[in-house]
User: Fold these one by one.
Assistant:
Number 1:
Amino acid sequence: MPRPTTAQLAYGSCTVIFSTLAMLLLSRTNSGPGVVVIAVSALALGLLVAMTVPLTKARTVEPAAGRVTPPVRVRREPVSAGVEPVRGRTAS
């Protein structure tokens, strides 16, 4: 099983936190078993959201069939091989 990506961890964690808060506020439960049910359902929802976030796949580029790319011509200009003086130093 591949490791989860940062986006999957972020979406799953946010889902768990916000869904737990929403369900606790909407249900107004005070009992221990009610809180446990809400916490377990929020974790299941967060796991579901994290696993359904699309994974990025490496794209492969295949050359088009029958097409040949012509070579690229580059214009090269001569570069002088002269030595430039170093700034801040005096020639001795």
Number 2:
Amino acid sequence: MKKRDILGNQANKVYLGIGSNLTNKKKNIEFAKFHLISHGIQILKSSSIYISKSWPNNNFPEYYNAILLVKTKFTLLTLFKIIKNIEKQMGRTDAPKNYPRICDIDIIDFNEKILTIIYMGDKITVPHNLMHKRNFVLLPLYEINQTWFHPKLKKNIVKLLLNLDIRDLRSIKYI
């Protein structure tokens, strides 16, 4: 849902997922928040940090994850470019998909809409295509918004959580 701020600019309500499984993971999440703020992105809410096994390879280091509710004037494409730049500034390098990384920032939801854009060969879809299957997204999202509704699946966050395997729910912990 878009709202105008007091200056008349479009204000976008966005949920971001931040993850890290290399070096000082907690510090990486906090540093990613700092970078977002320095780009004029206002953090409205932040979940606790959750610890989960690396997926799909459990032999990789465990992940620290958090969900943020932010407000921004940026479009989906501009926000995506900013996020990719932040990841690069923090030391993220090109690696195979799902490999360990210092910083991973995903756009989970953008104005509660279903959107797809193509940028440099990457397809960006919101809500995030796999978010409804990931405990490290759903639990922190539930922490900050118990009434969130998936616009594509037409299910609320509680129903999405109940669809997770009990082992997924038991395997995640928060700091």
Number 3:
Amino acid sequence: MFNKNIKLVIAALIIGYAVYQFIEGNIGNGIFLILISLIFIFLYYRNEIILLAFLRMRKQDLEGTKKWLSKIKNPESALIQKQQGYYNYLHGIIFSQTNLTQAEKYFKKALKLGLTMDYDVAMAKLSLAGIAMQKRRKREATTLLNEAKKLDKNNMLTDQIRMMQQQMKKI
């Protein structure tokens, strides 16, 4: 809702007022204000709109996800780099249902900007491997599948990787 810089300014102001409360002897108020400022610092690193879009994605509601992402008007200035990565990652998932060329562009941009979790990087590479396989680029798909397999430390994507490898043998 707020720009990333405004969130930091609000957090700094609240911390400043908390220090004033400590000086005045109102320790409880100061602690409470510090906790409130932590919310704004958290939202600096985790954008609230992207969090709500992930909740919609969890419910398999692609239209709702798209609606939440459309509320971010200028992602380059409103989001930090990792958030831009997740913004593009979610767009890639949305477009993977309809437009593979557009989805490939978004997934590559998300990987370039960076994703925090290894699982998300593995999922993006697995999706890119699927797109490359459908476009008959077997070597690229094999490379991406192997990278996804290395990143999947919890074996959450093992079945999908195995299924894709079987489909690659048929090509």
